[in-house]
């Protein structure tokens, strides 16, 4: 358990609840998101929050079984901020009235103007008379609860900002956490200041605390860690090594589907720079052998996932007597999101992970990054002295080049792909674009095309370049390279890589495409 003051966000299923956590982390405030079903009075007592935020959500407070917080939220004596549905919940629970939308529904940009009475929550707001906010509500508050007063109105929301300042209850109809409420961060800053947060959730403090917790959890037992060379598992490994030294052994499974020079980079970094005990499991023959003749994307993914677990287990055995498995699980992976639609979502791709291993091997998990977002993991990596070139790396999928080689995988295709990818990334770096792009790679297409080079005919593979901008990989847009850049890159690839005579640029966004080809 953390020693910091904690803020509890009760999630009612808004699409943007994670952004609330984001804004708070930027203020160095520790917070956790928990779905409303889980937050009982007993939970509240144990969590002991210094403040509570009630998120937005798609429900109507008067619908049957509408999501509600436990009554204890309003008797804890701590500041509460209700956002959108959270505001409606507060009014509903505290004696106000909420009505169905129709003419008063608002979606998108709106402008809030202040009332004469000032409110500390709004310090820094309204310097220009009104503030832009982002609304997204069907229902609206029609009568505020006793004790509340109005501090801001919009044309369609006479109760855009309401508060009972004596009890530190605040309720707003708009979403301060989104980009389109430009002064929203200021509102959160005021809220946490009013709640008395010290803002001491820094990376430096986190690192020391994480090290202490790892030592406490592990004692003198051995820990194994699956190292992929990606940022998350690398930061986890270095942090754990700092905590327990040689009690940690990393296992790096080389499935033969890595990029040019990748295995060497990982080995040099961890073995030579950090002196972390590392097993280099070169199992490329096994993986490529089993993948021979396989062209179905799901069969590829499942084959790789199965072999990975077998191989990891085999090599982990060499460590002898490990009791813990370390993983670079991040905060977004552990947030329990609230589903109102019910029913399982469709599986688009079977993502590769080492799920199931801990039970199979009787291991307990060490997950020191569970409370962090990706950019916080990068900040921690910097704190631990990992080089920038490593920290800023684009994500690379577990199944590696297998899913960038649609159709059948051959060693020849993999070699061509590695060379082309290295030229492409080199181009991106040379033009100073690497950090602007979320992920970039080459895929080798399962077609050969006719070309003419010199005076001769060629019949070689076509490849496709991909570069996307994204925040979290869930949605993505293609990167708008200049024509000059694309022309120069295509020329370099065809000139420098034997086996490719045609280059395409993939301009599909996600959705409808996905980032990887398979
Ligand atoms: P897609 O292709 O689903 O990819 O749009 C979204 C992001 O996830 C990465 N990706 C994976 N990462 N194991 C991983 O660790 C996987 O099996 C996997 N498949 C895709 C992909 O590179 C992109 O960043």
TrEMBL record:
Pathway: Purine metabolism; GMP biosynthesis; GMP from XMP (L-Gln route): step 1/1
Binding site for ATP: 228-234
GO function term, MF aspect, one: GMP synthase activity
Active-site residues, Swiss-Prot/TrEMBL: 84 (nucleophile), 175, 177
CDD domains referenced in this protein's UniProt entry, alphabetically: GATase1_GMP_Synthase, GMP_synthase_C
One GO cellular component term: cytosol
Enzyme Commission designation: 6.3.5.2
Entry-linked Gene3D superfamilies: 3.30.300.10, 3.40.50.880, HUPs (3.40.50.620)
Superkingdom of the source species: Bacteria
Record's keyword annotation contains Nucleotide-binding: yes
One Pfam family recorded for the sequence: GMP_synt_C
InterPro entries documented for this protein: Class_I_gatase-like, GATASE, GMP_synth_C, GMP_synth_GATase, GMP_synthase, GMPS_ATP_PPase_dom, NAD/GMP_synthase, Rossmann-like_a/b/a_fold
Assigned keywords, A-Z: ATP-binding, Glutamine amidotransferase, GMP biosynthesis, Ligase, Nucleotide-binding, Purine biosynthesis
Domain GMPS ATP-PPase: 201-393
Alphabetical list of SUPFAM superfamilies matching this protein: Adenine nucleotide alpha hydrolases-like (SSF52402), Class I glutamine amidotransferase-like (SSF52317), GMP synthetase C-terminal dimerisation domain (SSF54810)
Reaction equations catalysed: XMP + L-glutamine + ATP + H2O = GMP + L-glutamate + AMP + diphosphate + 2 H(+)
Role of this protein: Catalyzes the synthesis of GMP from XMP.
PANTHER family in alphabetical order: GMP SYNTHASE [GLUTAMINE-HYDROLYZING], GMP SYNTHASE-RELATED
Subunit structure of this chain's protein: Homodimer.
Name under which the protein is recorded: GMP synthase [glutamine-hydrolyzing]
Protein's gene: guaA
